[in-house]
Amino acid sequence: MSTTTPGTLAFRPLDPLEDAELLHGWVTHPKAAFWMMQEARLEDVERAYMEIAADEHRDALLGLHDGEPAFLMERYDPAHRELVGLYEPRPGDVGMHFLVAPAETPVHGFTRAVITAVMRRLFDDPATARVVVEPDMHNTAVHALNAAVGFVPEREILKPEKTALLSFCTRAQFERAVAA
Asked: Would the pTM of this model clear 0.90, i.e. be above it?
């Protein structure tokens, strides 16, 4: 795989029971520290993703690289989950989290290709006007990735589990960033 052609990236619905063992390995890996599930047991992962699957305001998709599971995407309605009371949501706001599976041999540019694919997927929905993220203030790697696809930080916010950097990306900002 070259650094400019990451292969084919696709999405499928996450199956909380079938995919739990795979996800458990990802979310408890040291590189996933900001996912805050380091001590999770398999049952905890199953429960967390069953709750997401049952929630009308959230969903999770498994990202595939050349047909093989390689990343996770979570989408949520920030008017009802994650950011309630922390900012004033607008119509068309969509919250997002993503996690790339740990790799024995990281491929340069792969994570950027993943976040670009995630953003395209979100903006494929014409109702999505703006994507909202709230990564940990200390997660400088994801701040750089967010900036690369057009996110603009607004301010720090205090969530129960972390101090986060509230950032937004409109469709136009995303298109400009990926065209550059």
From this structure: yes
